[in-house]
């Protein structure tokens, strides 16, 4: 699994946790008290509450993630997450911000259109029709109530069987008339009933007949017939007397149409209060779905747009570190493809020019070294030649003591200058065959402090070290980097000595300040080690020459390759060294080493 896939999975996990937290908080805060929850709350209503909790939590997570990633980008110098994350946020805000006013405007306009469209009160019309139907039923209801009371009184004093039911119903003309129904029920099962009736009563829309009575009256409305029923419980047992009368004869279909329309109207909750709410709810759900799609596509588009930019940025970083074997793949046409193609061509040209430049620099460097080496060799050759010529002239001298003195003095000079030549040759040989560093990830502080201990007892000299907290480990060759710091400290001490001699202040207090800090750049982190002194300093025109082999500002017979060795050692560590004037009055050498 690559880093990019891991980042996406992490973001999806965070999104899932936010959704889960929104649901948990909504249930704990809004739906924990059962007394305050409406009975008719729907699943969509819960979804809306979840969304109201999700939006602020998601926005807060975006802000926290944005500031956290910016902080991490500054610490790590990672360009990848910075570009892609900002592009993603930009796409999300572009999709989200316009959707809010569109949501409010569309829901409000729809609500107003609904109110105008439903200006006629449908509910009032249906209620009026239902009232007319009920008024038409009243005479037959009263007739059924009277006959039911009489039949109940008759059955209470008679045994409960079919003959008594038929006898009582016949007296009241309930059997002879096919518009009536009579039956005895045990719970909901009929045990005695008028078989002449071809339709079975169904209990629908029943309502209590009287508050002080257990009578129940209910109606059954069908397209082919309509019935009105009364059910009376007996004092003993689980028996009920049920009677019925046919209503709305020859107009059943019209009555059924009005009643069913009223029921459907109530079932659909088509009221002025709920329909606009559900319309707005629908718009909200659609907006959230579009918003989630916008997040998904923003991640895809940000990845597609940022990938070539990130590849170019990483390639430039590799080129800055000296790797020119780079050829980016052209995945798409257009401006980005042309840019990558131009970059690849530039890298090829740069590689070719770099090889030519390296060859030219190599020739120029050896030419410069040869000239300086010839000059350095010529200096001791002159006294050697003069001493040899002087000895030759005195070979025939009769004064043996003077001759021996000249020979002794001349040979001493020759030996001394030969040693100088030997020293030059040895230093040149060491410079030419410096070993490759063996880099190990380790702490710089103990190496630096060990070098400082070598010079801390130098008279009239103060050395101050300041290594920042949390200074990272570096890939170093301990021996080589120790020689680098030793050379730089020796150079600073000699600069302080020259200042004492120049200004004729023997008691001049020397000071060297060493600091190590972590510096952040766009694409990487670097460790910066500075060594400053209050010595004689360096002029601006000599700053570019101090690292050249066999160049020296000292008056003694030094070879001038110490700082050249220092520079080569730093370069072998993939670092950079520079010199500048110090605020202390002397020189400031600054070494930059990469942090892994």
**First-to-last CA distance:** 22 Å
Kindly report the average pLDDT value: 77
Assign an overall shape: rod-shaped
Could you give the order of strands across the largest sheet? 2-1-6-5-4-3
Strand content: 5-15%
Tell me how many strands there are: 13
Percent of residues in helices comes to 55-70%
| Number of helical stretches of at least 4 residues | 12
Low-confidence runs = 202-212
Count of discrete domains: 4
For the biggest sheet, the summary is:
6 strands, antiparallel
Helix/strand structural class: alpha+beta
Helix and strand run: HHHHHEEEEEEHHHHEHEEHEEHEE
**From the alpha-carbon coordinates, what is the Rg to the nearest angstrom?**
52 Å
EC number: 2.7.13.3
Keywords: Kinase, Membrane, Phosphoprotein, Transferase, Transmembrane, Transmembrane helix
GO molecular function: phosphorelay sensor kinase activity
Subcellular location: Membrane
